[in-house]
Write a structure and sequence with these properties.
This protein folds into 2 domains: 173 residues, Rossmann fold (3-Layer(aba) Sandwich), CATH 3.40.50.1950; 211 residues, 3-Layer(aba) Sandwich (Rossmann fold), CATH 3.40.50. Helices cover 34% and strands 25% of the residues. The protein contains 14 helices and 19 strands. An 8-stranded mixed β-sheet has the order 12-11-8-13-16-17-18-19, with helices on both faces. It has a 5-stranded parallel β-sheet with strand order 2-1-3-4-5, sandwiched between helices. The protein is globular and about 70 Å long. The two termini are 31 Å apart. The relative contact order is 0.09.
Length: 399
């Protein structure tokens, strides 16, 4: 983390006694650390302690007229490469989740483009409360990193989940937020993942069995190669990998709109999503009642996102996926040529294959008969193999 600038936010909680050690661990790794404390934090640890270990005057007051005359909260927000809040109390998580900015720390979080990470620390029952869990889920969906909490004995005498992660582990987690240097450093990769849902009526939809696991693994692999990754995701039960910006969508139209919003800035586009080919032509506003013995639902084609991106005049390097049940490579190669793709990854699917599984088997095809069998294995492993080939072929084509 040499030269990385970290704002360390301290909120009110007994775990604040660990935070001076966290400052030391971050500094040991080469970071510059600016501490910002809430009023509650100062009831547990004095600002002087943090000033001694960070070498910087602690900031705490949004209404410090001497500092705010120069819009210091904006200056801090722009200065930071990462905002890490440790400990993060339940109250702070609630404020951040709902956009409340009534102190210097929350105001700065809202005013910054830097990634934000939180290390929750609270009583086990408070952590398990439905409101806290909903706030944490909302923050994760917005791209906030959540480190922990850990499980163990607590200051209240109880034992359970809610302890702040130890300083050394937190410093390592903070390091992982920053992109690694790799062949795709400075490049942006746009990825679609998961299924889409096409509305029939307010309570029913047409979808498919895609879990999103392959797409999320590809996103993680691209991040590991140094890329900035934007993940456009249909409805899945997965958390976005660290350091990746996720855009949540539901329908094919929404996914198309999200992709087109991002694609001009993309160097590589990878379409792993299982986008519905058809949707109900006339979804109803009221629930369809069970009155007739049969029900016919007229269907219409959805937008072909992959084809639309591949036809752009200044398009990125385009990689498609093909899920086939028979004549796997024949159908995939036809799709490669028909849609003018740079690469296509094909896998055989069926009742017991691929869907909702952690393993996969991929074959990669490209023009003029190009082919490479990536073999079978865990989706995370295959994603790394796949991204290695994509990176090499993209860089060769860009020369």
């Amino acid at each position: 983390m040499n030269g990385k600038r970290i704002v360390l936010g301290i909120t009110g909680g007994i775990a604040a006694y660990k935070s001076p050690d966290l400052v030391r661990r971050l500094v040991e790794r080469g970071a510059e650390v600016q501490v910002v404390m809430t009023a509650g934090a100062q009831a547990f640890v004095t600002p002087l302690t943090f000033q001694a270990v960070s070498g910087r005057e602690v900031r705490s007051d949004l209404w410090d007229h001497a500092a705010e005359a120069a819009m210091s909260h904006i200056e801090l927000a722009r200065w930071a490469d990462l905002i890490l809040v440790a400990p993060a109390s339940a109250d702070f998580l609630a404020h951040l989740a709902h956009g409340l900015a009534d102190n210097l720390l929350t105001t700065m979080c809202l005013a910054s483009d830097a990634p934000v990470a939180v290390a929750p620390a609270m009583n086990r029952v408070m952590w398990a409360n439905a409101a806290t869990q909903a706030n944490v889920q909302l923050l994760q969906e917005r791209g906030v990193y959540v480190f922990g909490p850990a499980t163990g004995s607590q200051a209240c005498g109880e034992t359970g989940e809610g302890r702040m992660v130890e300083p050394t582990a937190l410093a390592d987690a903070a390091m992982a937020v920053f992109p690694t240097q790799g062949p795709l450093s400075g490049k942006r990769v746009l990825i679609t993942a998961g299924p889409t849902r096409e509305r029939i009526d307010p309570v029913r939809f047409i979808s498919n069995r895609s879990s999103g696991k392959m797409g999320y693994a590809v996103a993680q692999a691209a991040r590991e190669l140094g890329a900035e990754v934007v993940l456009v995701s249909g409805p899945v039960n997965l958390c976005a990998p660290q350091g990746i910006r996720r855009e949540n969508v539901e329908s094919a139209d929404q996914m198309y709109a999200a992709v087109m919003k991002e694609v001009d800035n993309a160097d590589i586009f990878i379409a792993t999503a299982a986008v519905a080919d058809y949707r109900p032509a006339s979804p109803t506003d009221s629930k369809i009642k069970k009155l007739a013995h049969t029900l016919e639902i007229p269907m219409e084609r959805t937008v072909d996102i992959l084809h639309a991106v591949a036809q752009l005049p200044d398009r990125p390097f385009v990689v498609g996926f093909a899920a086939e049940t028979d004549n796997v490579e024949v159908h995939a190669r036809a799709k490669l040529e028909r849609k003018n793709l740079d690469l296509i990854a094909v896998n055989e699917v069926g009742d017991t294959k691929v869907f909702d599984q952690d393993d996969n088997a991929l074959v990669l095809l490209w023009a003029n008969g190009g082919r490479e069998d990536l073999g079978a294995g865990a989706k995370t492993l295959l994603a790394r193999r796949l991204m290695g080939i994509i990176a090499n072929r993209y860089l060769a084509a860009a020369k």
